[in-house]
Each structure stands twice: as structure tokens, then as C-alpha cells.
Design a protein that fits this description.
The protein is mostly helical. It is 57% helix and 2% strand. Helix 3 crosses helix 13.
Length: 459
């Protein structure tokens, strides 16, 4: 059973340095993420809707900032409750939970989407589809699939943005510092929703619904789990129990995307004001007392601006859901520490109250199936597939032709580990690192240029 006093460590990936100075190691994690180019690129990655110039809808960056805000609140509220149990006899644990858990969850939330490729989940599916459809294509006399072990192949045909996030944050890319971002193991654990290998996916378990690390990051996974006491549930393929902090990161994400997609749809005119108000108020009634709901309705009457009214309802619902998640986390302390809690906090609340049932149904009908959403998904699918179709053969051919040699010269230096190896898996990961890190706009423009649809011009 995990223990609260051993769930955290200031030890960093790739470093043995001891922290010093005014900022704690967990505050430094937050700062390193927010100042990184990988985080900045989220501003041009689709959240749900295409990124228009005339309406302010969410992209991956604004979504991540809002998730971090909710996550920080969850960490603060839970941390203060846990801290009371250590006051007077374990000052180190008291200080961490009282003041630092909020920083850990905030940092993990900032980074939770950092591995998502361009065009969101459509980009993930496009990458997986490319390898599935080219499995039997010959390269150097054998099929594409035969270049890889069973787990390596699963890493490719089930490409997962969560695993890409761990790789971005911890991998020692060529010419860069050892250990990637050099974050604390605590922050990494707080975003590792699926601590299992790609060949261990089992949708009956919440922590195995997807997978969380490429074969190339297995050693990092073992070190992280050992440092923080995460239980090894299965050795082959690797499965660890979840770290309790990840439930807070997951809850912040679930709360934000469930509620904020509705606000964006209203701002774009996909949902009308009356139906949006009814939807959010009904959800609020299910997770708050009558007094809180009545006060909300009273405040709402003072707002004549429709968008501001919906934003206010969104804020009140997020507030109520956050409080519910804190209560549920604390009520399930033993199951979380035993790594036996087989649900997400928000799903458990929804199962008990139905708070998001109508929101989810309407989102499927009017938001995720909207023409503009489908169009960006299809466009992204084609762009990502075509780019892989250019770069993967260039990497794998033993004797690349003149065109392929030019394609290889386009790789940024940090993604050129393929120059030092004959390992097909490492070579293909170079392509995935490069392509999945692209913004929607860059991937589209590169696709157009390489296909001859447009030609670059000098400034």
C-alpha cells in the first residue's frame, strides 16, 4: 500500500542535483513547462473546433492553462486536508501537502496534452492508421511490421498522445539536456494516467484503458515507479498501479473539456442561449445544494450579456464539480493508496448524479459531429498520413534515393538520432517526434509544400 509521506520526491529525471533557492522543485517544474517551446506550440493545436480568427474558442494551450487552474485548486483543497494529518509530527510532509501539491497538480495539468499531435485525436488516429495500412509494405526485403518487436509495433499502431507526452518530457533528445525537461518524478507521476505498456491495454481497468509509455521509455517508467512506491502489478507486459495524484490531474481535464466545449459551441452559435442555460443549470442542480443553485440563478438575472451569462454558469458548475471531486478523493483514500480504485473521479460523480449525462449526449449530437469539427478531423487525417508516407520510407530504406535524402535533411537536429543507428524503431520514433510535435498550421503548410501544392517564398 502506498503512503502519503512517500508519494512525493524532489528527485528529477536525469539529474542528481539537490534543489536550492527560493523556488521549490515543484514550482520549477511549472515554470519549465510554461516557458518551453513544446508548450507554446499548443496555441496552434486544435482542441475541438477549428481555430477561427473572429471567435475566441479554445485551443490546446488555453485548454491546458484552464485545466492547470482547476488542477491547482484541486491540489490545494486536497493538500490542505491531507496536511492536517502530518501537522506537528512530520513537518516535511506537512509542508509538501500544505503548499506544494497544488504546484505539482498545476504543472502536470499544464503538460497533460503536450504530446498530442496536430489535429488532436484525429492526428493520433492518422498515425496509427498509417502503420496499420502499410503493415505488409516491403522495406529492404521484409514487410514494415517485421522491422519491429510485438510491443514496438503496438506502440505504432496504437499511437498514444499520453505516451508521447512522457517521451517529450523525459527523453534525452540529440543535442539537448539529459532527462528532457528534467522534471521531478512527482510531477511526471501526476500526469501518467495509464502506467502500462501498449501490449497491456485492458479497457476493464481505468489505468489500462490506454497506454502511457513507449518501449523506449520503459527504464524511465521503472525508475519513476520505484522512486515513488507505485506498485508493480504485472511484469510482462509492464503494468503499474496508478499514482493517487493523477486522479486530480485527470479530474481537472475531465471537468474542463466536458463543460467548456459547451461554452465554445454557444459562442460559435452552434448552441442557442436558452438550451445552453438549461443544460448547465440542470447539471448544476445535480451536484450542488438548492441554496447554491438559487444564488446562481439570482446572480444570472443581473447579466444581460448572453456570453457572460454562459461563462458565469460554466464557472459555477466547475466550482461545484471541483468540490465534489475533492470530497470523493478524500472518501476513497484507501482505495487510491492501494491502487484499486477503478474509476475516474468525474465518471464516478456522473454515475451517481447523472451530472454530465445530458451534456455528453448533446456534445455527441451537436458539437463533435458538427461539420466544421468533422472537416478539420478529416483534413488532419490526410495531412498526417501523407507526411508519414514521405518520411517513414526515407528513414527505413537502406539506400535512400535523392528525394529521400532531401527529406531527411528537413529533420531538426534534435530528431536526427536516426543518423547514429540501424534500429528501425528508433528511426520511426524520430519521425513521430518530428511530426507529432508540429502545429496544425505548420503540418498543413509542410504538407502543401512537399506535395507541390504551394511553393515557399523568401521574405
Amino acid at each position: 500500500m502506498m503512503q502519503y509521506q512517500t508519494l512525493y520526491s524532489s528527485q528529477r529525471v536525469g539529474s542528481g542535483k539537490t534543489e536550492s533557492g527560493a523556488r521549490s522543485g515543484f514550482q520549477r517544474d511549472y515554470d519549465r513547462i510554461i516557458f518551453s517551446s513544446a508548450f507554446r506550440r499548443l496555441q496552434n493545436k486544435t482542441q475541438v473546433f477549428p481555430l477561427p480568427g473572429t471567435a475566441f474558442v479554445h485551443n490546446r494551450l488555453t485548454h491546458s492553462l484552464e485545466v492547470a487552474s482547476v488542477g491547482r485548486s484541486l491540489g490545494k483543497m486536497v493538500g490542505e486536508q491531507i496536511a492536517t494529518g502530518f501537522k506537528g509530527h512530520d513537518e516535511h510532509s506537512y509542508e509538501f501537502y500544505k503548499y506544494e501539491l497544488a504546484n505539482v497538480i498545476g504543472a502536470a495539468c499544464l503538460a497533460h496534452d503536450i504530446g498530442n499531435p496536430a489535429f488532436g485525436h484525429s492526428g493520433e488516429k492518422a498515425i496509427a492508421h498509417f502503420f496499420l495500412t502499410h503493415a505488409h509494405q516491403p522495406f529492404n526485403g521484409i514487410s514494415l511490421q517485421q522491422h519491429f518487436t510485438a510491443q514496438q509495433w503496438q506502440d505504432l499502431v496504437q499511437f498514444e498522445g499520453n505516451a508521447a507526452a512522457l517521451r517529450i518530457l523525459t527523453h534525452s533528445f540529440r543535442g539537448r539536456f539529459t532527462g528532457g525537461f528534467g522534471l521531478t518524478y512527482t510531477t511526471i507521476a501526476a500526469l501518467l494516467k495509464y502506467p502500462c505498456a501498449s501490449t497491456a491495454v485492458d479497457k476493464t481497468w481505468v489505468h489500462r484503458k490506454k497506454w502511457g509509455f513507449f518501449e523506449s521509455e520503459t527504464a524511465v517508467m521503472h525508475t519513476l515507479a520505484h522512486t515513488l512506491g507505485m506498485p508493480l502489478q504485472q511484469a510482462q507486459p509492464v503494468v503499474y498501479g496508478r499514482h493517487p495524484f493523477v486522479y486530480l490531474t485527470e479530474a481537472a481535464d475531465d471537468i474542463c473539456y466536458s463543460v467548456i466545449d459547451v461554452e465554445d459551441a454557444h459562442r460559435l452559435g452552434i448552441l442557442q442561449t436558452p438550451e445552453t442555460k438549461t443544460l448547465l443549470l440542470d447539471a448544476l442542480r445535480r451536484v450542488s445544494d438548492a441554496l447554491f443553485t438559487d444564488k446562481t440563478i439570482g446572480y444570472l438575472k443581473a447579466l444581460d450579456d448572453a456570453n457572460e451569462g454562459i461563462a458565469f454558469l460554466r464557472a459555477r458548475l466547475i466550482n461545484a464539480l471541483t468540490t465534489c471531486c475533492v470530497d470523493l478523493f478524500l472518501q476513497n483514500k484507501n482505495a487510491l493508496l492501494n491502487a484499486s480504485y477503478n474509476n475516474s473521479l468525474v465518471d464516478a460523480i456522473n454515475a451517481d448524479t447523472g451530472v454530465l449525462k445530458d451534456i455528453a449526449a448533446l456534445s455527441r449530437e451537436k458539437i463533435y459531429g458538427h461539420d466544421t469539427v468533422l472537416q478539420i478531423e478529416l483534413a488532419g487525417f490526410n495531412v498526417m498520413s501523407e507526411l508519414l508516407g514521405l518520411f517513414v520510407p526515407a528513414l527505413l530504406h537502406t539506400h535512400p534515393d535523392a528525394r529521400e535524402k532531401k527529406l531527411l535533411r528537413l529533420f531538426p537536429y534534435q530528431f536526427t538520432a536516426f543518423e547514429e543507428t540501424e534500429d528501425a524503431y528508433i528511426k520511426v520514433l524520430c519521425a513521430l517526434d518530428f511530426i507529432s510535435g508540429m502545429t496544425d498550421e505548420y503540418a498543413t503548410e509542410l504538407y502543401r509544400r512537399l506535395k507541390g501544392i504551394s511553393v515557399p517564398h523568401h521574405a
